[in-house]
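Posting this for the archive.
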Amino acid sequence: MLLHNLNMALGQLKKYRLLILLGLVGLAVGLTCFVLFVLFPYFSHPKGIDDTYWRDEATGDWFIGFTPECVIYADKFWEIVSQTEEEDTYRLVVSDGTVTIPIEVGEMKKGVRSIEIAGLEPVACSPITSAALPDYPQKDTRRGIKDNGYCMGETVTFVGWLKDMPEKKRKQREFEISYDNIFISGESENAYAKMDSLGRFSITLPLVNSTEVFLDWGRTNLSTVLEPGETYFFLYDFSTDQKLFMGKNVRLQNELIAHPHSWDQLMTFEEHGKADAMKAWKEADRIRAKQMGMLQLLLILHPNLSQRYIDYVEGYYQTLQATGMMQARFNTPNMELPQAYMEYVGKEFWQKRLQPYTQYRDFATFMTDYLNQLVMGPRSMGINIVEMLLCFDEAGEVSLTEKEKDCLKQYPVLIAQREKDISDASEKDRQALTDAFNNSEIVKMAKATFARYDDVINDEIQFRYVLQSVKAIDSVGCDKTLRDIHIARQLYGVIDHLCKPLSDKMMKLVEDEITLPFARKAVLDLNDKYLAIQKRDISKSASLKSADAVKEMSDGEKILRKLIEPYKGKIILLDIWGTWCGPCKAALSHSQEEYERLAPYDMVFLYLANRSSDESWKNVIKEYNVTGDNVVHYNLPDEQQSAVEHFLKVSSFPTYKLIDEEGNILDVDADPRNLNRLEQLVKLMKGNN
C-alpha cells in the first residue's frame, strides 16, 4: 500500500510539474526583482558621480554619463568647463565646442538622482551598475526592422568610446566596423574611425539598408544591427566591463548586449554521419528548437523584452538554420541533397525569408547556396565545349581552321573510347591508355584549341550559368528587389572570378535585368575598374616570363628545376595561386609590403598561376602591382602546371614553398600572410650560411 501511495504521489507530481516549474520560475523572478529594485539600490549605488552612467527611470534609456575627461550626453562628448560639489549635489557647465549648457545633479535619494540639463524638466535617474543596460521598465510592442528600400545616400552616424583600454589592446588605433555588402558576392566591407588618445571616435558610414555589423570584433566581441538614418553612441568601459548604447532608437541594440542570441548552428556532416542529409536535417531542427525554447524561457524571466528583440532573434535563428542546412551540401558526395531536404528548405526558409535582406549577414550566403544548388554547375546546364566552339565558328565569333574543326569533332569520340577502354582495365593499363590518349595528335590539337579560346569558353560558361541562376530564382519565386540583388551578385562574381570586364552579352543583362540603383552601381563600378586595368600595358615587364624554356617538358620536378635554375644562390619564395582564388588575390594585395620587408635578403619571388587565362593573369598582376626586379611570373599550360603541382603535392591555394640557395625545397610554413614568421625563417636561413 505504501508503494502504491508513493507511485500515486509521483504521478500527481508529474501531472503538475509544469505548474510547479512555472511557480518556481515566478518565485525566482519575484526574488530577482526584489533584490534588483528594492535592496540593490541601497547597497550598490556609487558614491559621487565620477565614472558613473545613469539611466532615465521612466524610459529605461541611458541618459547621461560622467567621467573625469568629459560628460556623455545626447550622443556627444561634452568638455567639462567647470564643476562644483556641495553636499552630494553637483553643478557642471559643459560644452560640445559649439553650445555650452549647465547641468545640475541632485542628491542621491533611494538610489535615484534628479538630473536637470539646460533648464529642461529634471529627469529621475538611477546608476547603471550592471555590465549591460538593465531591462526597460515598459514593454515595447513595435515590430520590424527599418527597410528603406535600398535607397542610395543613407548613412549611419556612429560615435563611440573604448574607455580605459588595456595597453595590449591599444596597438590598433582605429575602430573597425565590418559588414557584408549584399550586392558583392563573397566580400566584406570595413569602415575605420581613428581614435584619439582616450579611445574616442566618430564615423559616418553609408548603409544600403538595416545591416548586421561587427563592432571591432577583436576588442568588443560584439555584433548588432544598425538602421540607416540613426545616430548611435557606443561605450565600452574596460574598467567596469560595461557595454552601453545611447541614442533615440537603441533599445534593440542594448537588449542584444544584455541578452545575446545563441551562435549554435549545424556543423559539418562528419559530426553526424557524412553524407547523411536527413540526419543533418533532424539535427538542425533540434538545434533551432532548443534555441527557441531558450528564448521562451528568457521571455518568462524578462517579460519586458521588446517585440523587436523577439522578432530579430527569432529571425536570426531562422536564418542561421537555413544557412547551416545549405552549407551542409559541401560535405556530401557531389554536393547532392535529397529532394525532400530541398523542398523543406524552400518552404521553411526561402518562402519565409525576412526583409530587409541585409539585416542578417548569413542571408546572402543562404541565398547563394540555395540557388546554386538548384543550378549545380556546367554539367547540369548541358554545356558541351566542343559544340560551343563549333557554333561560335559558324557564327563568326571564332575562327577555326579545317584541321581544328576535324579534331574537335573527333575529340568526343576519343573520350568515349578511352572511357570504355579503361572501365575494365588494370591500374597499370589505365595509366598507359590515359598517356596514349593525351599524346594523341587529335587530343593535343583539341586541347591547344581550347587553350587558344579559353577566354571565349569561360565567358560563355559564365554567361549560361548566370542565365540558369536567374531561371532558378524565378522558378522559386521572389520580389523584384531580391531578383536584382541576386543578378548583381552573380555578375559581380563573374567579374571577380574572371578578373576582367563583362562581355557584351553580360553587359546587356545589366542593362535589361537590373533596375535597383545600388545593385547596378556595384556591378558597373567593378566593371569600370577592370576596364581601366586593361588599358595598362605591362607586356614589356621583365617580371612576365615566357614558358618557351620548358615547352617540351612534362615532368613536374624537371619543369620546376628549369624555372628556378637562373636564381641559384638566392632564396626563392614560390607562390602557387590562381586568378579565380579569392584568398590568393587577397594575399597578392599585400605584395609591396612583402617586398619591402624582405628586401634586405635579396630574395626572388616566383609566381606560378593555376588555370588562369592570359588576360585575367595579367590583369591581376596589374591590379595588385605584383612586379619588380626580383619578381618572376609564369602562366604555364595547364598540363605542365598540374605536373609541377603534383610534384609539390599542392592540395590548396594559395600554396607557398621556400627554396634555399642550393635549390632545396624546404618543408616549412612559408606563408607571407604571416610576414613576421616568414622573415624569421629567412633570417635563420641567411644565418646558417
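The chain has a mean pLDDT of 89. The chain has five domains: 19-129, 155-258, 269-375, 385-535, 547-687.
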